[in-house]
Write a structure and sequence with these properties.
Elements lengths: L10 E5 L4 H12 L3 E6 L12 H10 L3 E6 L5 H15 L4 E4 L14 H26 L6 E4 L8 H4 L3 H20 L4 E6 L7 H6 L2 H5 L5 H12 L3 H4 L3 E3 H7 L26
Parallel strand pairs: 1-2, 1-4, 2-3, 4-5, 5-6, 6-7
Length: about 280
C-alpha cells in the first residue's frame, strides 16, 4: 500500500461538482472528513440536468463533511478570486484543488462552432490554470498540497489529434497547465487522472451515445475512489504525473473492478474504452 495521509480536516476546492464525477469525489472526500468548497454555476435546477451546487453541498454535509457552496463560473476571474477568498475565510486555507469543471464537444474541425471552441478553451484550459494559480499561495502553506485535474495523459498519436482537434487541444491544455504548475512550484503535487473506460455521466448520456454507452460504462465512484487515493498520497509521490484511474486503484491493492460497472455483471472486456488511451 502507498503511504498515505488522512483527509480529515483538510480543505478541497473543487470546480463543478453539482453532479456526476465531481459530486462523487466530493462525497467520497466528505466521508473521509474533508471540508469541501464547490465552485459551480448551477444556482437553480436545470431542466435537463440533476442537481445544483446547493443540493450537492447538502449531500456533502449528509456524508459527514463540511461544505461551502459557491455560485460562480470558472471562466470568471472575479468568481475565481471570490471562491478562493471565501474558501480560505470559511475553512482557514486550501490543501487541494480539484479541476473537475470541463466542457466537451467532439465535433470535427469544420463542424465545431467558434462558440463551442471558446467554451472548451475557457473552461478546460484557462479555468484550470486560473483556479489553480489563484490557490497556489495557499497551497504552499499546506503540508500536503495537491492540484488534481481530471484530464488525460498527453498522447500525440494522430488518432487522437485528428479525431476531435478542438476538444483534444482543450483536454491536453488542462494536462499541460497541471504539469507546468508541478514543474514550477516545487512541493505541490500537481497531477492528472483519467479512466480507461467511459464513466456513466450526463455527458455520456446526452452527448456521447445515450443509454447504449451508459450501459457499458463504469460508475463515477471508480473515479472518486481513485481521486481520493491520489489526494491521500504524500505530495512527493505523485508530483507532475499523469495517472490512470485503474492503475491507481491497483496500486492500492484493488484488483476486482466489477462492482463499478454501471450495469452489474457487465464483463470488463465489454466496457466502452474512454478516449485518449
Amino acid at each position: 500500500m502507498t503511504d498515505t495521509t488522512s483527509l480529515k480536516g483538510r480543505t478541497i476546492l473543487l470546480s463543478g461538482g453539482s453532479r456526476g464525477i465531481g459530486l462523487a469525489i466530493a462525497l467520497r472526500a466528505a466521508a473521509e472528513g474533508a471540508k469541501i468548497a464547490m465552485l459551480a454555476k448551477t444556482d437553480q435546477p436545470h431542466p435537463k440536468l440533476e442537481g445544483t451546487v446547493h443540493t450537492a453541498a447538502e449531500q456533502v454535509r449528509a456524508a459527514g463533511g463540511q461544505a461551502l457552496a459557491i455560485v460562480g463560473d470558472v471562466r470568471s476571474d472575479e468568481d475565481i478570486e471570490r471562491a478562493v477568498a471565501s474558501t480560505v475565510e470559511e475553512f482557514g486555507g486550501i490543501d487541494a484543488v480539484v479541476n473537475n469543471a470541463s466542457a466537451i464537444d467532439l465535433s470535427r474541425s469544420l463542424e465545431l462552432t467558434a462558440k463551442k471552441y471558446d467554451l472548451m478553451a475557457d473552461v478546460n484550459v484557462r479555468g484550470t490554470f486560473m483556479l489553480s494559480r489563484a490557490a497556489v499561495p495557499h497551497l504552499l502553506n499546506s503540508d500536503n498540497p495537491h492540484i488534481l485535474s481530471l484530464s488525460p495523459p498527453l498522447n500525440l498519436d494522430p488518432k487522437w489529434l485528428g479525431a476531435h482537434t478542438g476538444y483534444t487541444m482543450a483536454k491536453y491544455g488542462m494536462t499541460m497547465a497541471t504539469l507546468g504548475l508541478a514543474a514550477e512550484f516545487e512541493g505541490i503535487a500537481a497531477t492528472t487522472l483519467w479512466p480507461r473506460t467511459t464513466i456513466a455521466t450526463a455527458a455520456i448520456m446526452n452527448l456521447l451515445g445515450g443509454e447504449k454507452v451508459m450501459a457499458v460504462s463504469r460508475t463515477p465512484q471508480i473515479y472518486a475512489d481513485a481521486a481520493i487515493e491520489v489526494l491521500m498520497r504524500h505530495a512527493g509521490e505523485c508530483m507532475g504525473r499523469s495517472l490512470i484511474v485503474e492503475e491507481v486503484l491497483e496500486e492500492a491493492g484493488l484488483t476486482d473492478f466489477s462492482g463499478y460497472a454501471a450495469v452489474p455483471g457487465t464483463p470488463d472486456e465489454q466496457l466502452f474504452p474512454d478516449i485518449f488511451l
